[in-house]
Amino acid sequence: MINPAVFIPIAARLPPSNAIGAWPWLRRHFFDSAANSFLTLLVLALLLFALPPLFNWAVLHAVVQADNAACRAAAGVGACWGVVAEKGRLILFGRYPYEEQWRPLIASALLVLLLVVSCLRFFWRPTLVLAWVVVFTVFYGLMKGDVAGLTPVDTDRWGGLPLTLLLSSVSLVVAFPLAILLALGRQSQLPAIRTLCVIFIEFVRGVPLISVLFMASFILPLLMPQGAKIDVLVRVLIGMTLFTAAYLAEVIRGGLQALPKGQMEAAHSLGLGYWQIQRKIVLPQALRLVVPAIVNTFIGAFKDTSLVTIVSLYDLTGAVQLALGDADWRKFFIEGQLFVAAIYFIACFAMSRYSQWLEGHLHTGTRRQ
Amino acid sequence: MIPPAPPPPPRSRAWSWRSQAFRGLCYQILTLVLLVLAISYLMSNTFANMRTRGIQSGFDFFLQPAGFAIGESLFEFDSAQGYWVAYLVGLSNTLRVALVGIVFATVLGTLIGIGRLSNNILLRGLCAVHVEVTRNIPLLLQLFMWYFVMTELLPSIEAPLQPMANVFFSKNGLQYPLPEWSAGHWGTVFGLLAGVLAWRAWVRRAVHQFETTGLYRPGRTHLTGVAMWLSLTVLGWLAGGAPGELSIPEVTEINVVGGGAVTPEYLTVLIGLSIYTSGYIAEVVRSGIQSVAYGQHEAAVALGLSRSAELRLVQLPQALRVIMPPLTSQYLNLIKNSSLAVAVGYPDLVSIGSTALNQTGRAIECIAVLMLCYLTLSLLTSAAMNLYNRRVRIRDR
Amino acid sequence: MSTNTHTPIIEFSKVNKWFGDFHVLRDIDLSVARGERIVVCGPSGSGKSTLIRCINRLEEHQTGRLTVEGVELSDDVQAIESVRRQVGMVFQQFNLFPHLTVLDNLTLAPMWVGKIPKAQAEERAMQQLQRVRIAEQAHKYPLQLSGGQQQRVAIARALCLTPKIMLFDEPTSALDPEMINEVLDVMVELANQGITMVCVTHEMGFARQVADRVIFMDEGQIVEQNTAAAFFDHPQNERTQDFLSKILAH
Fold it and tell me: What is the pTM assigned to this prediction?
């Protein structure tokens, strides 16, 4: 029906009422088909069955004081968070001498502060590198002692949260330049260098971390010149650094490959040398592309530090196993393990949310406003 | 007519510092020389240290008797057998837990990955919680937690749990009835294989029928196929004399004797590994399914394909191609993560290696063999994945 | 199923659609006669794609009546399936199945929906491929073809089900300029063979050549509709004039 006559514009209206509102929304999302309704009821039943007793156990009937007798009396009925109160310092600081535990406390707080500050864009400037150097020096000084009148504490007494933080941050920071060299080497036109880098990366990625830690623990002392001793902590750090470097190299290689080829071509045509191009043009862009993946690697390193338990360094995971060696409190292992699991969960979850936020926001400088 | 182009001029070999090729060669030679120097320095240190500490070198110790017992293994092992047999036991234990773990993790991970895409917010939330919890807690901690559950919460063997008839669950692990192997069972094996072949032939026939007549009855086809497989297996079993000996665990006063058994260590590693890896596999499956462009769904719908036909013919083939590479690297991770079994006392490859190291002091050889085994497993898995990828890749220009 | 050649093959009656709270189709009244060729044009966001996607229920309308070949489109699954068998659609992004060859792309629906034997389906597929002049590419994979070739394959795929109505959603918008003509030629040939066509496009030359009626949509409403000549030469509404001046500038 052709109607070239008068056109009356119609104003926008709201959709009819049976499509909006709480009840239609519920129906659409939970009960729109037989299978969906069944699933909803099943999940609700599961939650109703599991959550109230869990709440009773964990909160209402829980024992919070470090009272072994009260805990035993409440066994099965209430959680014994007293194990955290009793063993908390052992779990958090390992076998560090009891009176000196204010030192790892301050050291950890400083390191956490540094990590948080490094995540904020506002602080991304050259002075941040200086801050890292300063904080690490202070950390080492506080923990090791022997300066400013502090009593010396050997590295094999270090443990718990400070050890976890130290291992993950130092291994990532030291692995970073190594990873850049490996990634560039893997992309290199020179066959010898490329082959060496490929061999290293594929070798390290093909073996479990535990074998690398064993190798570092047992073989590194043999490689030292006669008479030289190498600290357990340093050995483990070297192992973790090499391991992280290989994975980080693959991440950076992904960034290098994602860079448009035109960048290299434009740089070459401007007459820049190889290292100038890498430093000024390729790496700044490639690294920015993969910052979220680098954060994910840090999360992985943070979790992987738990493996040092197997080579007898008592990080957070190892410390709680040590704490539960006490026969009196061994019964309440769930509460102890949950406490440490919660710490890891909060830290890793926060970091992964941060990494997702980064992915969204990092390109604001590269898009047209 | 365009005359043929003249041949390119010969490349000049100016061996000056300004030639890129020459520079490259210099850098490489320099690197190699430095590497050789570093290696020889380290090796001389190593030999000196080994002499000082009286450590011998050489792989000959592999043939010497191991001198230690192994908690569990697939085949008989006693301490008089050589170290290399011990390593074999370790390898078999690793594979035993890794392969079963891969199956469990894949099934669980796929279900949870699909659940994360469901319309139902409750289901989506529950699956998201599972993924976040398993991915943000270190595997070692999860293994320790499961180990404590297995060894503290379960009843002792004097009063075990009995979830099913003749199945016992206690601090000593899981014990279940196990058929005893006898010669008659070869009949069952033959029946099984024949059944698989018959099933395949039946499906081929159904496909041919579909192509020639357009008739397709999926329910009937697959049910008949399964029925053929089962009946041929039973026939084989009967033909072998219907051997029915079972080794049934029996409850005695202080123990449960007989039947097949898996230790709490094995269960810990299996359950811990499966649940941990399932979180990662769920994410891989979810992103694979989401990677299929929405336009594919629209085209399938516009053509009138039913939901199941669309899933089978359009969505799944494309999703699988995206899922396979990261899925394979998760399998590799699972195999490598099984090395954590040493922390809970399960005698896997790393555990045996570390025992051998402690006993013989030959760190380099023991760790080298260890790494070699894992490298081989990794390379084999990667090669298999590359083969699969090359065969199914979507062909473009 | 109406066989009366005077009842419209597609009929919109006070059709409204919302995306959430956004009122995208407002009181649409439209009748398409059998064999008629319609071109829908308008600025982006005017609802023209949504309009044609409602015809094969890729989008659901909330109020009003939409009837295709006498079947009213509602939540009834049978009705929807019978409508989709009569309607073929060609998309802007081609949406070919990349993991199947061109021939498999075409035989998929006839075999699995039409339950036609494979040999017959392949024969029909080759006929359609010859119709769009791309028969020699039958065993290639879609991503090995150029954009224009892929879109012609997409048209052939839709034709394999012998639909009564063909919907085109901006079929040439994703193509490089030198390939637009090969696709438009195929569409012109199709139009001359009597099939009912509803086409959303910016190609005004094509519209002028082929369309029985041109519809201009803006803000979810049909602003003006007329024969092709009258529409382009004497646009009545000032919104239409404004739009045409922008489109026909070069």
Answer: 0.86
